[in-house]
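Problem: given the chain below (69 residues), write out its structure.
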Amino acid sequence: MQQLISKVMNKTELKGNWNEQKGKLKKKFAYLTENDLMFAEGKEEEMYGKLQIKLGKTKEEFQKIINGL
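Solution.
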């Protein structure tokens, strides 16, 4: 999962753009909750893993979603 994060964006970009990305994910997947999208420093992999499972997507599918935001 770390490779996914580094491919998508570095941690500084993730933290800085997370509110924007979170809004886009909520718009695309209305059933995601604020708790699903809670950003915690050092827990990015866990958050992405939970989102991947909740959305029922493979790593590759989830990466395409994130890259498409």
